[in-house]
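--- STAGE predict ---
source: upstream dedup step, 1 unique chain passed
mode: sequence only
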Amino acid sequence: MIEHGGNIYRLAEELGVPEREIIDFSASINPLGVSKKVKAEIKKALNNLHNYPDPDTEKLKKKLSQYHDIAPETILCSNGSTELIYLMPRALKPGTVLIPFPTFSEYERACKVNYGLRVKSYELKKENNFEIMPEKFIDAMQNCDMAFLCNPNNPTGKLLEKNFVLEISGAAKELGCFLIVDEAFIDFRPQESVIKNVPDNPCLIVLRSMTKFYALTGLRIGYGVFPARLIDKLKESKEPWTVNSLAQRAAITALEDNDYADETLRLIRSEKDFFEGSLKKIWIGVYPSDANFYLLKTKKDIKIDLKLREEGILVRNCSNFRGLDSSYIRVAVKSRKENKALIKAFGDMF
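--- STAGE serialize ---
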């Protein structure tokens, strides 16, 4: 298994402390936590846990259809968007898949565990702040059957503006290459989503997660929007009942909670200003970010993640992202109190 952020359990056991005492900057989750309305809905749903969940997630698809103004028959719900990342190579059987790097590591792993698909790489240059160059990405898509594009990208936080994504998706259509746009963090820049453009392009696929913005991390809920012709093919290779009843009910309620969404955007804007300004006063290299996390460049000999672990603070060591090494860490934007604690810890080190 590839190491990811969010493993508070291991560190709590190492330090001999309760899990609640770990401050986790390694997973980029909404610092507000789960909304009160969602918690209340989950409590009400507990009495129905003896029933199987709806295998077709009909109510959730209807809500997503209304929320995004798209057809429900183009939506496939999943146990987090990662389920779909593994499902697509298995079901669509591409020969060659284009994956930029550094980016979310599960894209490449999903291709390698599915019949050893050939992976073609596109390097993002650190001197360009790891930005995707549309023309070069399009050139790299030649002779590919599928391409992954994380937007905003994980772990760099860089957003590719909507018009450039559409330029790439238009080229993918001409090439007959499926373009999978992973919008796990797009809720922080919703106007840049291309989810409504899927019906106009038979090669465009958009993935969404309800983990980051809505903090439904432990329930595992995500979805994809696909050209309608692909849905049955994907269902043939998909396991049944992967979206549990609580996740379905929680997701519907979360989408209806406009106050929570508004408060989230206000909080993240405020904390990013504070966080970024504070980080730049320290010598750590801060890459610009359009998401709720930052990629930081430190010195290799400091082992900053290990020192922070001793204080019960988790950050994401990026050494297992292709194209990065142990001098890079990723840190989430959290509450003011937690952000101050991290800034202080950094200050004490330097």
